[in-house]
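Bit of a strange request maybe. I'm writing a small parser for structure token strings and I need a real example to test against, not something I typed by hand. Could someone generate the tokens for this chain?
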Amino acid sequence: MRWARGRYAVEMRDEPAYSFGSPDNARSYGHEFLVEPTYRPSSKHGIECSLDGEPCASAVVGASGGGTGVHERSCALLPDRCLVAVGDRVVALRLPDLGLLWQAKADEATCFGLHVTPDDEHVVVHGELAISKFTIDGHKEWEFTGQDIFTGECALRGAAVVVADFNGQGYSIDLESGRGTTVGAG
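Reply from user aminoacidic:
Good idea to test on real output. This should exercise your parser:
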């Protein structure tokens, strides 16, 4: 999958067979980031960055927690960094060299997707067990849990995060405070 913003383009692929530290991988990457070295990674994603159409850096990131694949919400590009959802983590990589800026556990299970706020100052993480808001520098500002796992759609709508859980219960979460209310079916 490919994301582009300004002079940067990032391509990301799932790398389930990648073995950290091995010379026998099908692809090699400039950086390897196993963000939880004491655990076996359940998710591994390869990332390649291009600047003005020319390849300039690559990295592979791995984390534990529930397995994540690569889809539209797996990555978010900001002017100077790339945010990646992998396993139970959010990983921030510097552009264009893909150096590790920070990583944080964002959910007790799995990170389903990332939503950057319109001001590019925060990222909302759609986790399986929690919806959380981080600054782009990795500080968690709030976390919201519902009655069940958040397997439904998640979106930013104005000053709120709207999300549904496994039972179809809807929630509206204030983007500033993290306080939520139930809405709709459930």
